[in-house]
Specification:
The chain has helices at 2-11, 18-53, 77-93, 107-132, 138-155, 167-189, 195-200, 234-253, 292-299, 328-354, 364-369; strands spanning 57-64, 70-76, 101-102, 105-106, 209-218, 220-221, 229-230, 276-283, 310-311, 315-326, 359-362. By secondary structure, the chain is of the alpha+beta class. It has a four-stranded antiparallel β-sheet. Strands 2-1-11 form a three-stranded antiparallel β-sheet. Helix 3 packs across helix 4, helix 3 crosses helix 6 (167-189) and helix 4 (107-132) crosses helix 6.
Amino acid sequence: MNKAKKIIKEQGIKTPDKKAEKAEAKSRKNLILIIVGILAVLGGVFVVCFTQLRPRPILTVEGPAANGETTTNTVYYTDSVYDIYQMESMYNNYGMDWDTQQGNGTLSESSKTQIMNLLKQREVLVMQAEKDGVTLDDAEKSEVDKSVKDAMEQIEKLPKSVKGLSESDVRDSIEKQKLADKEKKKIIDGFDIDDAKLTAEVNKADFRQYTLQYYTISKEDESSKEETKPLKDEATLKKAKADLQELQKKAKTASDFTKLLTDKDNDGKDDNTGISYSTQNLLESDKEFADEATRAIIKKMNNDQISDVLETDKAYYVFKMINNNDPAAYDSEVKNKISAEEDSQYQKYYDETLSKQYKFKVTGYWKERVTIGGITA
């Protein structure tokens, strides 16, 4: 034993320090606890981030593929946000209350149903397009580019950034809708719709359009917010008519009928006289514009003719006839009639045939977590 101690001493080997070993072990233990703690925190952050940022499926659509097998498409929450934005913008512009009762629910609830129906139908049409080999051509892709540009200009004015309204998200939505619309047109083109018969059902005489430009000044006291009353002041009425007569003289020789007023404050009226400029597409069947006697005079005017000052109970007018037989209203009515028939037949086909080929599953996230009315506002 003494020999061993002597060797240790000669070689400079120290006897183990029990205190130092204990402190080192404690230090290692603390380090391990710190590392475990950091990993736990990082794990929690990862879970939170993944929960918040992971794609949220809201709808799955299962249907036939081109190879005869079955395919399934998944629609995510971000795929719906541009549609939500459009819906919310429309109703917010009208100052609508989202809690207003509409049918069996609120405006918010009915809007949510409309959006989901749109998403289902769009996905079906996209899947049909893929099945039929329908794609967008270069011209259609250019139209998508323009639509995306216009949309982003409006979205950038929003008071907050919204996930699902990035340029790539908006492009995906617009592009998908464009493809769905193309497939829908392909389906409609396969229907047996008699355009000539529908055209013949529109009475051309009723939709004869008189396209007008005109100046006017009111004969009513518009200062009251509750109701308008006739002006009693004869001097004011006399001046109003004289001002319009003077303008009528200028209009007869002016190269541009539309630019005879000075309106620096952009209130729609001449800064000095209060005379305003406007346009009107007067239909043969119209009973509301001006009064019957004035409408009769208008309908006898030639193209480019400027009327004398005409007077009704409510206002003085000077008219310029742009086109006394404009086909625009008739053509529009024919187009609307044909479109209505196309949409009617398409919706019947979709409800009774096409949608029956697909299975839809709406997720709990959409049902329980999404409330329309304040997502993009």
